[in-house]
Automatic annotation (TrEMBL):
The lineage of its organism: Eukaryota, Metazoa, Chordata, Craniata, Vertebrata. Residues 115-249 form the D-isomer specific 2-hydroxyacid dehydrogenase NAD-binding domain. GO terms for cellular component: cytosol. PROSITE patterns: D_2_HYDROXYACID_DH_1. It comes from Chrysemys picta bellii. Keywords: Oxidoreductase. One of its GO terms (molecular function) is NAD binding. InterPro entries: D-isomer_2-hydroxyacid_DH, D-isomer_DH_CS1, D-isomer_DH_NAD-bd, NAD(P)-bd_dom_sf. Signal peptide: none annotated. This is D-isomer specific 2-hydroxyacid dehydrogenase NAD-binding domain-containing protein.
Amino acid sequence: MEEQELPYVLIDTIGGTYGVHEDHVEFLKKHFNLITMKEFLENKNRLSEKIKAIYMWWHKPAANQELLHSLPNLKVIATSGAGLDHLDLKLISSFGVKVANTPFAVCNVTADLGMALMLASARRLVEGCQIAVSPNTEHFADGLLGDDVTGATLGIIGMGSIGYMVAKRAKAFEMKILYHNRNQRKEEEERAVGAIYCKKIEDLLQQSDFVMLVVKLTPQTDKLFGKKELELMKPTATLINISRGRVQNDCLPTTMQFTFNARVSGKKNQLLILVPTLKFSVGTVIAGLSRF
């Protein structure tokens, strides 16, 4: 019996900054014929009807109209990660193509990152490290110990899978947990982490020492957080965004610095942390951990 040919899958490239990880390739080739964009463009007449799927890594190859038109037998686009905001779902659907993602693959990782950013900002770890390695350092100021996380109030905006995992971690720090969500969690789920539901986002912002944005990017959450929301927060509170960058209003960084001048007193201040999307590097996050 003749061996069945493996299905053809289009990828952008292998290795490099944005290519499929080289250590994934051996496993993938057991199940698929991998075709890079370079190979496809050089042999379009031979390959266009064979390709049944696109495997996106770092949002590439882009599923635009030109590419979709050139793949008449395309059945599915599989994208790494949970977000779908880089895809034109209406366009893809019009070609009869389905979309697959990995909504739970990075829940724990993202929750860990949120907690790490909160702890680093509260305890001023980046500044402390810079001072510790400086040859000019003779002593540490008392203020560099930072602020307490244990017993502080954490407000979580978006209590989906990731938000709930953040709450589980925050419970171990004996934090008071408030949350705002489209729908209230079940009573037993709230009780398990000690979370209190705030129907109005304003109530959460006014009470929280730390506010963490953990929402999906949708038309409803695009530019969800801006000047109005920032001004409702305590002057001493910290804002942490582990959602897409567009959840923040475009004017927020400028507004934030203006607000510091107007509202901050003593040694306390607000802090904005930007989590990287494709437009930000990890260095942006680390730089943001220094206090203004």
